[in-house]
Each structure stands twice: as structure tokens, then as C-alpha cells.
Amino acid sequence: MDQHAEECLPGTRTELLLDIQNWAVSAEGKCIFWLNGLAGTGKSTISRTVAKAFQQQGLLGASFFFKRGEGDCGNAARFFPTLAKQLLIRVPELCSTIIEVIQDNPEISAKPLEEQFDELIYKPLHSLNQSKLSSSCLVIVVDTLDECDHDNDIQLILQLLPRVREFKSLCLRFFITSRPDLLIRLGLNTVDHNDLILHEIPKPIIEHDISLFLKHRLATIRHKRSLSPDWPGDANIQTLVTMSVPLFIVAATICRLFEDHNLDPDQCLTEILKYQNQESKFDGTYLPVLDRLVSNYSGRRQMQLVQEVQEVLGVIILLESPLSVISLSKLMGTSTVSITARLNSLHSVLNIPKDEALPVRLFHLSLRYFLLDPSTREKTPFWVNKEQMNRKLLIRCLLVMQKSLKKNICSLKSYGIERRDINPNSIGHYLPSELQYSCRYWIHHLVQSKDLINQVDYILVFLKEHFLHWVEIMSILGYISEVVQGITVLQSAEDRNDSELFQFLHDAKRFILKYREIADIAPLQLYASGLIFTPKRAITRHFFERELPDWIIRGPEVEVHWSSELQPLKGHSFSVQFLAFSPDGRLLATSSGDRTIQLWDPTTNTVIQTLVGHSFPVQSLVFSPDSRILASGSNDTTIKFWDYTTGTAIQILEGHSSSIQSIAFSLDGQLLASGSNDTTIKLWDPTTGAVIQTLEGHLSSVQSVAFSPDSRLLASDSRLLASGSNDATIKLWDPTTGAIIQTLEGHSSSIQSIAFSLDGQLLIDVSLQTDRWIAIHGQRELWLPPEYRPSCSTVKDATIALGCTNGRVCVIAFSI
């Protein structure tokens, strides 16, 4: 609620405010009090007054002031989350329940309204302990419900709110204001509620209140402008009262005209009184302001001025979220000087801040209704053609985006940087308000223009060039769910199933639905995980494959089309536990819970040899550097060396007290390292099978080991057991002395696989549990979709192979 917005003048609305107060505290009060009235009758002023009074009395539970054209203020998706946040403050007992809901479902604000209500309002309140709560009711103020963006949302809200009557722990009531729309009347038909029609309050009461308001404001104006004590005269004041009744907004606008130091108050009075006999109350409010704009001009200059003002005014009244003069100039492609000149005479109907960086706002939506009303066309040349002006706004939005959109627009240093970690100042710098507005609302203006058929080619060209760039910005701003909604709207507007635009939208929606989760977390994953795992012939991949990160030189085998399934390698009777390529790349070894090892020809997907000998599942495999020997580590605590050509075990190494999790040969084949659940690492002589050294330092099982190319460093990893949660470290060892050189920390769960690059400078590691990320040199870079999250993995140089629980084998090569 705007703390500086006007409230009811003391002495006005006294009976009405008393009725609302009695309803709120009465034990017999109904669940909903509906105050309805025509536009301009003062509903929002009353709501602000009521909310402030209830807050002072400790009766205010929450408030939400809907306002169309003010961004999220018209968005029903923000309604229940906002109420829940405010109720947390008023009812602290709700904290643990609601916080748990948000942690379990961080995208709750993007869920359907019914799910939001159930999870954020109904269930938390229903679970409260009645004995610990106050017996008095809490009131939730919902102002101008009719200004919610979508009629379906209004209907659903009215269906959901009465369910609070089921609460035994807490009494909740709703004070709702709106215009007397049929939709809301029908929605409340089946609900027992109080209602009061503002414009049907007896005329003498309304006239008294408006007279009191006018006399108070005019006295202030006389003082500030040094006017005579009796100005403008009792008769004129009474005329102004008559012209205003029953609309307070008319009286308020008249006063703003008199307050404008650029205008002669007597001349303003004369112009206003010309319209005293008009049927429309708004004629006398807005026509004097508009007439004045061109009164000193004629001919071509007058026509030019009308066009200039009409365009600025039309844009302002149709914006879904207000913009500053600076942003308006960039959106409209004109100078701030020109816009300011056009706005100079509109201070009585527009809130125009002195600071050009602050948004320009309507004082009241009645100006919008007046300028868009077809009957206004005959009264003033400033009438705005809604469809035509939305078409202009669409074109301007597209031009702004085409000029600015590009990959990684915020210059993020890594593909794994999360949205929550992006500096808000950086967002403001790289994404100015006009660009944010264009990205969020271009589809709205397209729909409102009712001109998709003539804009198809333009829209298609834009999407082919900038679809992912647009989605990136929407992800950064936290509006990824609106992308899905926008595409759905476009699909419904483009009903030609065989059109190129329809096909593009169908593919784009599949892409977003698949990757919206990670895009909302780390926006640049749209270009990494999103593109690399998208089907080969997907339209989105076709147009944006050029945007793949240059550090990915070979991606995994993926589906050809969205609907097809991969053909996984099959042969084991249980899930795959481990896999390893031979150094020459000609063989792939896999192990399984069935205790066998299989050798594959990866080019033909055929099994060459099956090795049997371990008494428990095999957890790790590695080929010798010359590819002649395969070593296997098992849960039976042994390591076996195999001659895979004959299928026989040629040596057995014993020494660990628990299962073997990882084994690795040094580059020269002179050392074998093994990591075990017994938390140790052992260095072996492969020729004799003797233990050379035992390395100790990890606090939990060692999951992976790898030698640097010169064999001078050994990297290992282990889970840390601390405060009841799993964490992970990577340790760098000197295998000669057994000393720990360095400990690397950063993962939040166990590290399954690590490897050095050929020059020994880059360490590639894969985190497979909580993070679901591939990280390069400790920096998360590639997110793995659920179907690609492996049960085992292996790394060779800068190539990672992932074995998945569904049988899928995924190989990704990185450029280093």
C-alpha cells in the first residue's frame, strides 16, 4: 500500500467507515464485505483508510491492491504469496509451515491459484493451534478486485476465499472493493456476504462529503497560490460539487488543475464550468485538460501536436507497467525533451515526477477508460485507438529487443551462476527498464492489437534470431513461467497447425517445459544443458546450436525427435554400476550389480566378452595405459587384473578392509591407486601386487582417484560427515611422500568422478547427487537433466562418460 496515497478526509465517509468497523469486530460478521461502486467513487481511498485503521487496531491480516497497468499489481499469481508473506508477520505461528512449503516447492508462485491457496493459506491456517491464538478476527483488504488481469482468476479467487470459514483456529474476513461488474456479482451470488453500493449511498451524504473535500482542498489552494479569500465563490463551489457527485475522482482532478502553477485558476474554472451540463462526469474532468493542449494552435501545427500528444498519452495509458520518461523515450524512439514537452500540461491527470528516472503514472484509471471509450472519439481528437496503439507498442517492443538481445547479456562469468547470485545492480545496468518491459509484455501487446495475422513473418524472424536470448532475460528476471504462458497464448492465436510459426512455437514450448527448472536456477544453462540435451532435429536446436558453449566439442547421443526414445546398451541383468573406456577408445567396460563385467565394442553396441569372478558387485574399472589389462575393484574388497581376451583373472590384490570404490593407473602403468570405503587410499605395484603406501586423511569413503599426467600428483575425493549432512572435498596428494598438498572444497555432495587434463592444469569433476552438475576446475558449468543423471561415470582427458540407471550411456567432450 502506498503510504503517501490519499485517505478519507476526517469528517467524510463517517457512516460507511463505522459500518465496516462494526462488521469487522462483530461476532455475527459475514466472511466477505463487498464495497462496490463506479470508477472514481473513491473505493481505493476507502480501502487505504480501512487498512490503516485496522492496522492500528491490530485487526489487519494482510492487504493487496490490484491495479491493472502496474505490472505485478494486476497479476493474480502474486495474490496468495503476498497474503501469505504478510500473514507470517501477523501470525508468527505460520512461519515454520509456510517456509517448509516454499522450500519443498520453490516455484509455488508459478503454480495454479488453487494450489497456491491450498499450500500457502488453507493448509497452514488449518493446522494452527487454536489455543495459542487471539480470538479476534483478522481482516484481509482486497482493493479493486476487478482490476485483476484475467476474469478467470477473479472467478477462482471468489470461489476460494469463502473456504476460510472452515478454519476453527483463526477467524479471517475479507474486505473487497470493485466496480459492480457482473462477473463479481455472479461470483458472490452463492456466498453469504455484506455488500454496500457506494454510488447508491444517499445523494445528500455523498454531496456533503464531496463538498467538505472540495472546500478543504480549495482553501489550501487559495493559500498556496495567494488567491482572494472568497475564491472561487460559494456558487461556483456548489456547481463544482454538483458536477462531481458521486465521483470523488472528478473533484480531485479539478483540484489538481487549480494547483498547477502553469495554469491560470480563473481560466481553468471557466473551462471546467463549460462542461457542467454534460451527461458524462468525465467530460468536465478531462476535456478541459485536453482542450487546453491545442487551444493556441491551428491548422497543420495543431494536427502535429495532437499526434505527438496522442502517441505519448496512448502509450502511457496502455502500458502494463509504468515507465519513466527516460525509458519511455527509448521505448518510443524519441527524445526525453520531446516527451517532457508533451507531458508539461498533463500534470493534473498524470503523476509526473521531477526525476526523469522515476515512472510516470495515471492518477486514476478513469483517464484510460475515457480515452479508449468509443464515444470520446466525437469529443476530442486525443481519443486513442486501442488496437492501433497496441500495434505500435508491439513494434517498439520488438525493436528494443532486436537492438539489445544477445547471449549472456549480463556478462556472467560462468554458465553455472545462479540467478539468486546475480547482483541486482548488474541486472539494472544490463537490462534497462524499457528492455525488461519489452521482454515481458510484447506478447500482451500483440494479442491486444488483434493483428497476429499481419505480424506472423515479423514475429517468426524475431523468434528465430532471439528466442533463447529472450528466454534468458525472462529467466534472469524470474519470469520463466510467463514464457510458457506467452507461448501458449501465441499458439492459441496462431491456429494454422501447418504454419512455420506454429511449428516453431510447438517446439519452443517443449524446450521450455523441459528446461524451465534449470533456467529458473541458472539462466545460462539454456545454452549449455538446454541445447546439448535437446533432440538433434528440434527446431530450437537448429536455430541456436551456434550458441552452444565453445568448451563443449562433442555432446552426448540424444533423441532425433522430441517423442523418440534412445536405444540404450543392454546386456546386464541389473543396473550399470561403472563404466570405463580403454585408453585407445576401442573398448568400453561396464560393471553391474549382477557381479559381472562386460566388454563392449562401442561402435557396434555388441558385447565381446563377459568376465565372471567377483563375489560381490564391481564398483570400479580401469584399463592399463597400454590397454592390455583391465583392473576391477569390488565390494568383496579385492582388486582383480584381467586378461580380457581370454576372460581370466591373472592377479588378485588384497589389503583393503572394505569395498573398493575407485581405482586408477598412473600414466606409465607403474602404480595403481585404489580408494575404499575404509577411508584410505592404497598405492600398489601392479607387477608384484604389493602395497607400496597407504594414504590417510579422508573422513569418509573415497569415491574416486586420478593421477595427473606426470604421475606426480594424485587427486582423490571423499564425503565429509559433518553436522548430519554430506559434503565433499577433493584432496591433492604427493604419492611419493603420502602428504596432502591441497584440499579443494565447494561441492555439497559426494564427488563421483575426477580427472586431470592432459597438461595437468585442469581438473574436471562430476557431482552426481544433490547438485546434478558437471563442474570444470571447481566451477559448475553443465546441468544434467533427470534422464541423464548417472549412476556411474568415467573421465578420460577432457571427455566424460556417464552411465545412467535407465541404461543410457552419455559421452561429452570438453575443449580445454
TrEMBL record:
InterPro entries: NPHP3-like_N (IPR056884), P-loop_NTPase (IPR027417), WD40/YVTN_repeat-like_dom_sf (IPR015943), WD40_PAC1 (IPR020472), WD40_repeat_dom_sf (IPR036322), WD40_rpt (IPR001680). Pfam families: NPHP3_N, WD40. Gene3D superfamilies: P-loop containing nucleotide triphosphate hydrolases, YVTN repeat-like/Quinoprotein amine dehydrogenase. WD repeats lie at residues 569-610, 611-652, 653-694, 695-743. Involved in mitochondrial fission. Acts as an adapter protein required to form mitochondrial fission complexes. Formation of these complexes is required to promote constriction and fission of the mitochondrial compartment at a late step in mitochondrial division. Belongs to the WD repeat MDV1/CAF4 family. This is Mitochondrial division protein 1. The lineage of its organism: Eukaryota, Fungi, Dikarya, Ascomycota, Pezizomycotina.
